[in-house]
Design goal:
alpha/beta, 13 strands, binds pyridoxal-5'-phosphate, 7-stranded mixed sheet, globular, two-stranded antiparallel sheet, about 375 residues
Length: about 375
Amino acid sequence: MNNFEIPYLSFKAMHKPIELELQSAANRVIKSNWYILGKEVADFEKQYTSFISCQYGVGVNSGLDGLVLSLKALEIGPGDEVVVASNAYIACWNAIHLVGATIVPVEPDPFTANIDPGQIPSVLNSNTKAIMAVHLYGRLCDMDALSKIGRINGIPIIEDCAQSHGASYNGTIAGNFGTINSTSFYPGKNLGALGDAGIITTNDSVLADKVRKLRNYGFSQKYVSDSIGYNSRLDEMQAAILNTKLKYLTEWNEARIKIAKFYDKHLTAVPELTLPKPAYHGDHVYHIYCIQTVKRNELQSFLKSKGIGTLIHYPIPPYLQKAYSFLKWDGSRFPIASRLAEQSLSLPIYPGLEENELAYICDQIKSFFEQ
Ligand SMILES: *Cc1c(COP(=O)(O)O)cnc(C)c1O
């Protein structure tokens, strides 16, 4: 029984039914005669912030630039320290380094892979200027604990919501907790553009104003520079696509939650696996369904031989990347992040994944551990 070819990710079931809508969105832009910072971007900023119930949204070209601009808006730079998880995505570390600030990594919770608030107080000092809350896999960080640490110490939180579109914590949606927050709409995210895109969200009008200028050379109006800015604009074409796809995000998130439920139910009896902590009420939107096992590499090869694609988020933690070799940190400094990198495996999860495919995946995983 090996007649399945299941990729790690497929867009087909999401895009096929809305192909005409996507084409008409693209046509709308082509015919508009206006391609940068126009009606589509303004519309998307309005639609997305209304979806997450946040006041201000500033469309940008990527999640990375959203983080850089957020740090810049908070006037974080050389001499300042930013706390971030040791296992965060490389873009989070890069953003901190690119503004000239110092990366201060702390270990994640071994089960959620999100930053462990308990580890934070010991690294705080007068140079700490922000805590980056990266909501990994689709589940929010412990925002009560992080907000409390931020409040007590007067340190702003920056959320990275790239993997948590629509995910909530105590009823509040990601992108609302931090002082200023960044989101990516890279194609593979729960809400993905057909290219690069992102948004910064905030409830602070001054910060919103600042990043609005920073994304466009620092212009307050055409050719009038208030600050030294970037070109980090979201373009009309991607905004039009996002305006179309946003309408389906809740439905797609629900499809992901259903898949996670299936995995939870059918893999729970496998003692060699650590499954994600279940959460089905929109408090986890399962961007990634990450299991942990000491036999990760063997399981991945086995599944590949059975036609099942998987990924590892992430195989090399930031501190072991050549790019950060100058920090001279080895794996022993961050044992939890190192273990996650060695034992994590992400199973296929996307709208359109059929129940017989899921059953096949679970059967193959069980048969691997039974052999
Ligand atoms: C994808 C991602 C980013 C980077 O987004 P880009 O749009 O690719 O720059 C940042 N942080 C996290 C957690 C991500 O998953």
